[in-house]
């Protein structure tokens, strides 16, 4: 996990560290290098300062107008629940992430499940 930045798959160097190629999905290795996830609380925090004014250890992202946590990572926006899934399980979810208790900002792993869209729609 502490591999040199240049050895991480699907990355290239930039002025502020490293970024993922736009055509490639951010990998677990890259996300885990930049963001820490607490499965018990659902909070995402920066391992490294993403830019000036945001220190390492600060909460990553903020709430969108729809109530979801959204994190800007390497020039792209990701929902917090999908990043939480990636950081906990080591792979992107294959379907839709459902918040079991219907609280869109509650990203505790116990509250998330990878389900088909039809199942997600039933949880309203």
Q: What is the string of helix and strand elements?
A: EEHEEEEEHEEH
Measured by DSSP, the beta-strand proportion falls in 25-35%
Biggest sheet statistics? 3 strands, antiparallel
Q: Low-confidence parts lasting 5 or more residues at pLDDT below 50? A: 1-16, 18-23
**Radius of gyration (Å):** 15 Å
The number of distinct β-strands equals: 9
**pLDDT averaged over residues:** 83
Secondary structure tally, helices: 3
Helix content: 10-25%
Give the strand order of the largest sheet, numbering strands 1, 2, ... along the chain: 5-6-7
General form: globular
Sheet/helix structural class: alpha+beta
Short structural summary:
It is built from 3 helices and 9 strands. With 124 residues, it is an alpha+beta fold.
Which properties best describe this structure?
19% helix, globular, alpha+beta, disordered N terminus, 3-stranded antiparallel beta sheet, 3 helices
Question: Your description of this structure?
Answer:
With 124 residues, this protein is α+β, with helices and mostly antiparallel strands. The chain contains three helices and nine strands. The protein has helices spanning 28-34, 80-89, 117-122; strands spanning 11-14, 17-20, 35-38, 43-46, 62-63, 69-73, 76-79, 96-99, 112-115. The longest helix has 10 residues, at 80-89. It is globular.
List strands and helices in order, with pairings.
Layout: E1 11-14, E2 17-20, H1 28-34, E3 35-38, E4 43-46, E5 62-63, E6 69-73, E7 76-79, H2 80-89, E8 96-99, E9 112-115, H3 117-122
Antiparallel strand pairs: 1-2, 3-4, 5-6, 6-7, 8-9
